[in-house]
């Protein structure tokens, strides 16, 4: 019986730790929100219209890139092939900041490198589609 009670107390203490962590995060966010000013969409668009530098650890370099725009979604959503989606994504982000990023040059880039760049951008990586299972008949 004592072991079960200790386990429950341990679970509660872990739960309480998680709650306290969330409360601390909310307090920090609230404090940060108090320090910043209101912005118009025009101000936000002006600030976001600048390239940012992204470190790609596996390539040991930085690249300049733009973030994806809300308006990019329809173009990306229509693409079903994961490799073509990766190319479009890199063209819409990295290609906007670097004119040497073309579809032809990306095709020459290694798949692992391409995936590492997408991961560094926080956009995941190209995924190989799983083959569809086939039915086998037992005779």
Strand content: 5-15%
First-residue to last-residue Cα separation: 57 Å
Radius of gyration: 23 Å
Helix- and strand-based class?
mainly alpha
Give the topology.
Blueprint: H1 2-35, H2 41-48, E1 52-56, E2 61-65, H3 73-77, H4 82-97, H5 103-108, H6 111-120
Antiparallel strand pairs: 1-2
How would you describe the overall organization of this protein?
- The protein is 57% helix and 7% strand.
- The protein has a two-stranded antiparallel ribbon.
- The protein has two domains: 1-36; 49-120, no CATH class.
- It contains six helices and two strands.
- The chain has helices at 2-35, 41-48, 73-77, 82-97, 103-108, 111-120, and strands spanning 52-56, 61-65.
- By secondary structure, it is mostly helical.
Pick out its properties.
139 residues, mainly alpha, two-stranded antiparallel sheet, 6 helices, extended
In short:
With 139 residues, this protein is mainly alpha-helical. It has 6 helices and 2 strands.
